[in-house]
Amino acid sequence: MGCGCSNLASKCWKPKNNGPMSRAHNDESVETSEATDMPTFREFTLEQLRNATSGFAVQNIVSEHGEKAPNVVYKGKLENQKRVAIKRFNRSAWPDRQQFLEEARAVGQLRNNRLANLLGCCFEGDERLLVAEYMSNDTLAKHLFHWESQPMKWAMRLRVALYLAEALEYCTMTGRALYHDLNAYRIVFDDDANPRLSCFGLMKNSRDGKSYSTNLAFTPPEYLRTGRVTAESVIYSFGTLLLDLLSGKHIPPSHALDLIRDRNLQTLTDSCLEGQFSNNDGTELVRLASRCLQYEPRERPNTKSLITALIPLQKETQVSSYELMGIPHSAAAFPLTPLGDACLRKDLTAIHEILENLGYKDDEGAATELSFQMWTNQVQETINSKKKGDTAFRRKEFGSAVESFTQFIAVGTMISPTVFVRRSLSYLMIEMPQEALNDAVQAQVISPVWHIASYLQAVALFALGRENEGQIALREGTILEEERNTES
């Protein structure tokens, strides 16, 4: 390989010293990275989270777990338009309501830019849910094992290792050293493509308190003996992640250590990394992984030692994470469709023309429901209100359109996302952006993957002066429209 694996093998097949590495590290790094602008931990109602996820819609599921940890994570959007990740546990988890609340509150006190922070929880009846910051750029597992456009670069892999070590050091310093089932799915990437450690792993994930749900081959040996996770167990899991980063595969530690002892590092190292790192850097990373994977917990390094070892290895430190990852930045320009461009320019006339031409083709099932109930006077009045609203909308009589659509919505016989979108645009036309935003959000609750609902939210947010949130909504609309066009 271009990185000189033959030389590397002769240097790093045997760990150099099992004692703790140098603890020299500036503790201020933990302090300066704290996420001081994050909202404080709060308790949510089930209704709030149901609305945020469009009724826990299947389309909003971002991850699911198997029988050992039967819970689901949804993406959602709160009333203030903040995007969140909502973890919904199975009904047998956390039977003790008070224990769940106390654990969530403790984790919810943490605030750091290396974490996907816990924002709140919900504990109504049998329901147990956690609410965290939403990370828009997938997991380490996706980018490392299932990449599509490009493999992760060596410099980015080193950055992941350092940021993860800093996250664990912050947790240790704040009394939350125990992390349950640390693996590549627990590391997520934010809007800037910076890696963060999911806060979910700081809480027990099941009724029986089991801390590992992955293959036993990756479980710390002392956990297999005692059934308890310790701070040293977390370091062992960190070592397995270093192997993941080095190999681009999920290799069992015992097999990896055999390869290291046999000086067979070419098999261990990801071929996609050819020429990207020096012998010395490769030697140090393998040595560090070996020390983390020591059988005896006391022989493993601590988090400060990990940081001290990883800082000198960092490459391309002035290059942003999203550039290293090849991910378009949320604030960067991205290709827009005619509707997306009209929304960015806040060209309400152009948006009106597009919506008028679109009609009601996205209201699936609406016509059938009406045909069944045509015989009632109430439904006939409802239809008339809708027709009046549509006529006023077409004639650009937007005040009248709002009035008629409001009558239609108030009856509640039929739910139409298109009516909410049309009323949203009508509100924008008469300079009522907050009402427009509310309607656009409601349209997305009814139809979670409808791109036009996101686009109208963007326009309303722009009108309210909330530029950053508007850009995010605009990008969401672009992604949803692209996915829709791909499917069709």
Molecular structure report:
Belongs to the protein kinase superfamily. Ser/Thr protein kinase family. It comes from Heracleum sosnowskyi. This protein has 488 residues and is α+β, with helices and mostly antiparallel strands. Helices cover 49% and strands 8% of the residues. It contains 22 helices and 9 strands. Strands 1-6-7-4-3-2 form a 6-stranded mixed β-sheet, with helices on both faces. The chain has a 3-stranded mixed β-sheet with strand order 5-9-8, covered by helices on one side. A hairpin with a 5-residue loop joins strand 8 and strand 9. Helix 6 runs antiparallel to helix 8 and helix 18 runs antiparallel to helix 19. The longest helix has 21 residues. The protein is elongated. The N terminus is likely disordered.
Question: Notable features of this structure?
Answer:
488 residues, 9 strands, disordered N terminus, elongated, nucleotide-binding, 8% strand, alpha+beta, non-specific serine/threonine protein kinase
Characterize the biggest β-sheet. 6 strands, mixed
Q: Give the uncertain stretches in residue-range form.
A: 1-34, 365-375
Q: What structural category do the secondary elements indicate?
A: alpha+beta
User: What is the radius of gyration computed over CA atoms, rounded to a whole number of angstroms?
Assistant: 26 Å
Mean pLDDT: 82
Strand order of the largest sheet: 1-6-7-4-3-2
Q: Which strand-content bin applies to the residues?
A: 5-15%
How many helical stretches? Answer: 22
Sum up the overall morphology in one term: elongated
The separation of the N and C termini measures 44 Å
Tell me the total number of β-strands. 9
Fraction of helical residues: 40-55%
